[in-house]
Design goal:
The strands form six sheets. Strands 3-2-4-8-9 form a five-stranded parallel beta sheet, with helices on both faces. A four-stranded antiparallel beta sheet has the order 16-15-18-19, with no helix packed on it. The radius of gyration is 28 Å and the shape is globular. By secondary structure, the chain is α/β, with parallel strands linked by helices. 52% of the residues are buried. The protein contains 24 helices and 20 strands. Helix 11 packs parallel to helix 13 and helix 20 runs antiparallel to helix 21. It has four domains: 112 residues, Tetratricopeptide repeat domain (Serine Threonine Protein Phosphatase 5, Tetratricopeptide repeat, Alpha Horseshoe), CATH 1.25.40; 263 residues, Rossmann fold; 69 residues, Immunoglobulin-like (Sandwich); 196 residues, Tetratricopeptide repeat domain (Serine Threonine Protein Phosphatase 5, Tetratricopeptide repeat, Alpha Horseshoe), CATH 1.25.40. The longest helix has 25 residues.
């Protein structure tokens, strides 16, 4: 069994266990008709007036908080935003990209939509980031949503902002400045805010007003803070569908800049100075100077590394004079546009896709649509300050050589039969199909799947990446790649692939289900919970989505909800009750990527998950002090996996807890037995060391050593 499954046994905490008569303790102007203003104003009186070379790049450990709110709980329909949450997801994607921010996925927390409450903002900003970051780290905070001024003071609007109680329900911008300027200790600190009046944020908590005082306070921060805000403190920030299909204008250029467009030196590194110049110039031009992003020039290290794009390094390239725009139009809906090998969005017939902020010079463009020959790749030239229309024509249905189709059909028939022998033969046919047609993406996908099921992970990954390379918009292939990477423990890359799938297809149940598992393995419990709930909404019979939901709820301390989710998983995956349940489980395994397709292995996965689910119920009941129920659940877990040391250890803790509650010593006998079994099964685990201490104390209570 893989280590991925085993981490499901993680014990969050242990409750104190005090045995009777002992001290047995468990330590446990933008035109307003096209651009939505990110501004709400509730007034009480008048409104107040040079980097290292690419070869020697060192990227510090990095943490980020990404916040995006489009729909507000207590605001009128006219005051809701359109693209703030999409903006936040775009920032998240570029931050975790290996050619971008290079942040580890588990170090980037997201508060999107209803999760971005005032309480959560405070917890993440004022507790998590100050406690996680060290003086050698890099920290980034991003906010997209409403900002406003009330009673002479500027606020960011959390999801639950109350228009009748602004001071009590908004997050003061000066408090945000104080947190990032003073409380968070890091080598480099980055603050990006796409909200109206975001220019009112002054790092260090300095009130609006004296800019000289602000500059002076920044210099005392050892040039560690780069604050780039969407607008000046008396300006509005805009969003529009005209920027990349729908973004805040500021965020659109931030993302383009971090993707490499801001790298004026051509060294593959985007510095703070480069991003500030690129974003300020482009946003100002795009809004006819009605929106002016701000940064305290000279207050931050201009060489602060914000993104690293080694493939984009062009030594000796002079900086371009001005940026230009490509406008893509197409003859078909759902055409994905790629610029320089990176997805730039989807364009539909009659709705052009504008991509401003591109560096002058030649760019490689391509339009792709699954099942059709692509248009491109070809070069299009961007001219300084000009807008160039690019017509993508998707006309030719991709035709397969008859020999390739025949080989593919033979391979698929064998694949659907299962068994190792059939899989081995299927590899031969899928390989022959690809040889007959090197652009046969479906053959590459199924070759990767069958190699995965034969546990040839290296070959499987190569085939799946080939499928995605042939058809970059092939979300099924990308989702399968993400699942295989998850299977082999490459969690960061798995999350990146799966995140691309759900951005392309928000109703892709498999990707949401796999994201729930990947986020759980990264200890990103809120993200895992969200992903699992989306998977369940799309596929209510997906038992495993309930399992990963339960795991993340339990490890978040939400024990009653976790118990309900575990019970839902056990009900939906109950093979023993009726044959239909077993068959449904197999069907879900085929369509949702559960484990391996081989039936025998699937049964093993089923038994393992049943054991883990009952363990989760046991742990939830134990933490709630319901020891009798917990004992029954742990015993049930051991019927599926008798040699699991974690379940033995948890069961022993339950018996000691029962002894504490009842005042009886009889439960100490089975407690000792299961502590001893924990040590026998795995003497090297941390729980075994604790078990030895428990046994010594139990023996002292019982008055004699047990055999």
């Amino acid at each position: 069994m893989s280590s991925v499954w085993r981490t499901g046994k993680k014990l969050v905490k242990t409750i104190p266990l005090i045995l009777v008569a002992t001290t047995l303790l468990a330590a446990q102007t933008a035109p307003e008709n096209k651009q939505q203003q990110r501004d709400l104003k509730y007034e009480a009186g008048a409104e107040p007036a040079k980097p290292a070379a690419a070869g020697s790049v060192v990227i510090p450990r990095s943490y980020a908080l990404v916040i995006g709110i489009s729909g507000y709980k207590n605001l009128a329909a006219k005051d809701q935003l359109l693209f703030a949450e999409r903006d936040a997801e775009s920032i998240y994607s570029i931050l975790i990209s290996p050619e971008g921010g290079n942040f580890r996925a588990e170090n980037v927390h997201r508060l999107i939509g209803p999760r971005a409450t005032l309480a959560e903002l405070r917890r993440e900003l004022e507790q998590w980031l100050p406690s996680a970051a060290t003086p050698d780290d890099r920290v980034l905070i991003y906010f997209a949503g409403h900002g406003f001024v009330y009673g002479g003071k500027a606020y960011l609007a959390p999801y639950d902002i109350d228009p009748g109680n602004i001071a009590g329900s908004g997050y003061p911008m000066d408090a945000l400045g104080s947190v990032i300027g003073s409380k968070i200790k890091a080598k480099w600190k980055v603050l990006l805010t796409d909200a109206c009046h975001s220019g009112a944020i002054t790092p260090g908590g300095t009130p609006e007003g004296d800019r000289a005082a602000v500059s002076g306070s920044l210099q005392h921060l050892d040039r560690s803070l780069f604050s780039l805000t969407a607008s000046r403190d008396r300006e509005r920030s805009y969003e529009s569908a005209d920027w990349g299909g729908g973004h805040g204008i500021f965020t659109y250029y931030v993302v383009k800049g971090l993707e490499g467009a801001a790298d004026q030196s051509g060294d593959g590194i985007v510095t703070a100075d480069e991003l500030a110049e690129y974003v300020h110039r482009n946003v100002r031009e795009a809004t006819n100077a009605n929106q002016n992003p701000t940064s305290e020039r000279g207050s931050f290290d201009p060489n602060m590394l914000l993104a690293y794009i080694p493939s984009g390094a062009k030594p000796g390239t002079p900086p371009p004079p001005l940026d230009g725009t490509l406008v893509f139009e197409t003859n078909m809906d759902g055409v994905e546009v790629f610029v320089d090998g990176k997805s730039a969005g989807v364009v539909n017939k009659g709705t052009p896709l504008r991509l401003p902020g591109l560096r002058p010079g030649a760019h490689t463009v391509q339009g792709v649509h699954l099942g059709y020959e692509p248009d491109g790749p070809r070069e299009e030239t961007v001219y300084p300050g000009q807008e160039i229309t690019v017509s993508l024509k998707i006309t030719m249905i991709r035709r397969r050589p008859r020999a390739a189709v025949e080989e593919f059909d033979k391979g698929l028939e064998l694949y659907n039969k299962g068994t190792k022998e059939n899989y081995t033969s299927a590899v031969v046919h899928f390989t022959a199909a690809l040889a007959a047609d090197p652009q046969y993406s479906q053959a590459a996908l199924y070759l990767g799947r069958v190699q995965r099921d034969l546990f040839d992970e290296e070959a499987a990954e190569k085939a799946l990446r080939r499928a995605v390379e042939i058809d970059p918009d092939y979300v099924e292939a990308r989702a399968t790649l993400g699942g295989m990477l998850l299977d082999k423990g490459a969690l960061d890359e798995s999350i990146r692939q799966l995140n691309m799938v759900v951005q392309r297809d928000p109703k892709h149940a498999l990707a949401w289900y796999l994201l729930a598992q990947a986020m759980r393995m990264k200890d990103l419990y809120p993200d895992s919970i969200d992903a699992a709930r989306k998977a369940i909404q799309l596929t209510p019979k997906n038992a495993e989505a309930y399992f990963w939901l339960a795991e993340s709820l339990r490890l978040s301390g939400k024990l009653p909800e976790a118990t309900d989710a575990y019970l839902s998983y056990l009900r939906l995956s109950d093979f023993d009750s009726k044959l239909a349940g077993k068959m449904n489980y197999y069907v879900l395994g085929y369509t949702l990527g559960l484990g391996r397709k081989k039936r025998a292995a699937q049964r093993d996965v089923w038994k393992d998950l049943r054991s883990l689910a009952y363990f989760g119920l046991c742990d939830s009941e134990r933490l709630a002090g319901n020891f009798d129920n917990a004992i029954g659940d742990c015993q049930k877990s051991l019927t599926y996996d008798p040699s699991d040391p974690y379940s033995h250890f948890a069961l022993a803790l339950c018996y000691t807890g029962q002894s504490q509650i009842s005042g009886r010593v009889e439960p100490l006998l089975p407690a000792r037995k299961h502590f001893d079994e924990t040590i026998r099964l795995n003497p090297d685990m941390a729980e075994s060391e604790r078990a030895k201490k428990y046994i010594a104390r139990i023996d002292a209570v019982l008055g004699s050593k047990q055999p």
